Amino acid sequence: MREVQEFSTLISGVAGAYRRSQILFAGLELGVFTHLEHPASSGEAAAKTGCSPRGMAMLLDGLAAIELLEKKDGLYVNGPAASACLVPGKPGWQGEIVRHSMGSWDAWAGLADCVRNGACGAGDERERDGAALRNFILGMQNIAQFSAVEVLNAMDFSRFRRMFDLAGGPATYSIAFLKAHPGMRATLFDRPPVVEIAREQVAAAGLTDRFGFLSGDCHTDPLGGPHDLVFMSNIIHSFSAAENARLVEKAFQVLEPGGVLVIKDFLTENDRSGPAFSLIFALHMLVHTPGGGTYSFGEVAEWTDAAGFAPGHAVPVTPQTRLWVAEKPGTG
Fold this sequence. Notes:
Distance between the termini: 70 Å
Number of helices: 14
Oligomer: single chain
Helix content: 40-55%
Strand order of the largest sheet: 5-4-3-6-7-9-8
Structural class: alpha/beta
Strand content: 15-25%
Number of strands: 9
């Protein structure tokens, strides 16, 4: 009986997990964290945010319960995580990626129908625009500012001079690469509205003179070249296997002999036994894209082999993020 009770507790925790995320979403949406860098009462927080005293008191207690706020003597203040990541202007700001998660709420509510049909019922996430697009692209920057450092630590990029950041979003990776390697230049390719966001980020980093930009559809438009490094970060999970195989072929064509393709994504083990994050993320693609998902090392190897690359190899970055590295054979 004790074992069954433990199972019940586990299931109850999973079933109610949405409550914790909604508490976070409400706190961010209402600007709570902006006003709690210094201790304040619930009444003061209600006045600053334009909320009801009753509702704000309950929300602040909920935020304290999930350890985003600290409460002492009736006053509330941001905990370390909230102070570092949920206050606008802080270096660790994660606001856009949290808002992107908020925007996925309705799509995830339709998961059962997507499983029945094998495809998402809503619009393709690749067609987002306006505030949703900006939240997504800058949300990628929220995450990539940390993972770019991990990628640079996992692999030596010092020999490359002409990086092609394919579907490079906010240019976070190429900016980090160019800062780490002063002899490198980069060309970023993405859809026109995304390129405009990338230009802002590159200008803010003071690297405009070392960047080029190409706008278009990566499946149908030319990718320029030649490049000695093609970097594809978290792209393949948005596309079907057939689309990815063709995209890898295009990357092969624009690389110079001896050039390298690096695919960074949530790659799974070949038997899809893990990582857990990657398996769950595949469902995120199911509810948001017509054919996206997460792919195994073996599937990616099939694409690079078929395109003509030398046998590739995997490089671990984090428990859920891995690189697949494949070189275009040289002329000799």
